[in-house]
């Protein structure tokens, strides 16, 4: 593992499924708030990043919209509920960007970088040197590497790991078992 120097990190790009909430089985999607199960410590991890003055940005592929499984409004309802939950824990996401498209029809679906480019418009001081990507898919790590950012791979539950997990762990600068562990070990934010 290459490790990382976290002293320069100011912007944290988080994937959603498998990082904040329990991944659904492969091929299934969170289409309703009732299916959104927080992973232990994810809210606390975000609160710590907020308190440290880091900007926390969600970047999530939501192909379920293209598949007709849920609408933009339903997804935004889920994201509003995430923010409400976080607010009760003294935490917040500073921005949320999602890709609603299917494979190969856009420039924003990770591992492409369009979601990050949208963020750079809203946060012009964010750049490859002061940002890190934290995700549980090879596509998250690839997007981060493409941008020249540091990357942390979240090693998910064994039974919900996707193809490419081993490659993602190899490619990433660091690996952690959870978002809270990533924030403690790799961002140095211990309570
Ligand atoms: Mg994910
Ligand atoms: Zn897209």
Cα radius of gyration in angstroms: 15 Å
CATH superfamily caption: HAD superfamily/HAD-like
- The chain-level structural class is alpha/beta
Secondary-structure element order, N to C: EHEHEHEHEHEH
- Which residues sit in consecutive blocks of at least 5 with pLDDT less than 50? none
CATH overall fold name: Rossmann fold
**Silhouette:** globular
Strand order of the largest sheet: 3-2-1-4-5-6
Round the mean pLDDT to the nearest integer and report it.
95
Which compounds are bound in this model?
A: magnesium ion, zinc ion
Which second-level CATH architecture applies?
3-Layer(aba) Sandwich
Helix content: 25-40%
Structural overview:
With 191 residues, this protein is an alpha/beta fold. It has six helices and six strands. 32% of the residues lie in helices and 15% in strands. A six-stranded parallel sheet has the order 3-2-1-4-5-6, sandwiched between helices. Strand 5 (150-154), helix 5 (165-171) and strand 6 (174-176) form a beta-alpha-beta unit. Helix 1 (42-51) runs parallel beside helix 6 (179-186) and helix 4 packs parallel to helix 5. The longest helix is centred in the middle third of the chain and has 17 residues, at 72-88. The chain is globular, with a radius of gyration of 15 Å. The mean pLDDT is 95. Magnesium ion binds at residues 15, 17-19, 135-137. The site of zinc ion (ZN) has 5 residues, from loops.
